[in-house]
Design brief:
By secondary structure, chain A is of the alpha/beta class. Chain A is built from 8 helices and 9 strands. In chain A, strands 1, 2, 3, 4, 5, 8 and 9 form a 7-stranded parallel beta sheet that branches. A two-stranded antiparallel ribbon of chain A has the order 6-7. The longest helix of chain B has 15 residues. Classes of the chains: A alpha/beta, B alpha/beta.
Chain lengths: ~180, ~150
Amino acid sequence: MTPRKTFLEALVAMLTPRDVLVSCLGANARYLPHLAVPAPCIALCDSMGAAIPLALGMALQRPDRHVIALEGDGSLMMSPNVLATVAAARPENLTALLWVNRHYESSGGQALPAAPVDWVGLARGLGLTHVEAVADVATLRAAFPRARDARTPALLVLDVAFDPHEEIPPYSERPDEIRARFTVA
Amino acid sequence: MTLAASVPDTWIGRLMQAVRASAKIRAVDVAREEEAVAIACGASLAGGRGAVLIQNAGLLNCGGVLAGLVELYRIPCFFIVSYRGDGRDPIYYHTPKGRVTEATLGAWRLPYALADRAEDLAAQVARGVELADESRGPYVLLITGGDLE
């Protein structure tokens, strides 16, 4: 399985200044300030499950920008209904990446409920038509441009390695700093 | 407003119909109320102005996202909330929600007003939107049965 940071670095390398990035709480939000993200970026430090609907609101408001949401499987497990909301709203400019590592990394690495969730099947069942499973970086490099060009909301389901000993940097920016810097020109 | 995210309630049905007919406001049908809050916030962060139209049962679901998104990131977010179970609601099973609604708003420090149908409702909405903008936070306008009919 692919480490989180490897996926994240590969994704950031594909972003452009015309994109907008929304990250859920946790490791992605904590790594992002240390990467050269070329797009406006807002990273959450709380509010599990908010990344995809936040990105949906941005995508509907700004159809001229592509909005990318990063969400964790623990967060989406709390509110999978949002996928139906996205499917109904049908933004052409929204790509969500689901980071499936089967653990609540932020709260100490506890395992998710041990159900073998079929995220691709669930997303399709809730109405999304462009859904791809991503097992490695090469697949991500091919799948992300397809998602961006799909002209329909897309979900990429990333199979992420969970490393309980990963040294994730702490949150380095306060929400008011993140908010003050975030603008979509 | 540029976007209104809503979960249905009888008392806000006509309002959502009007929003759907509007050329200026994007109506978003939402599966659960926390999503509606985040969607409205997304519209606001992207340069628009988002509103949330829900029932008080849904507002009671929203404590986490109000604290962890709206308050923490200081995002203007205007709510119109149907106040089911208030003294004028004829349906008995809404009563427990009505009993705790204003107490919960107080405990969560959410600024709110009760809509006054005898006065100009459009002005009350405009004032609520303005207060949300000024405070960069939430503002709730509670409406009851016949207010929007």
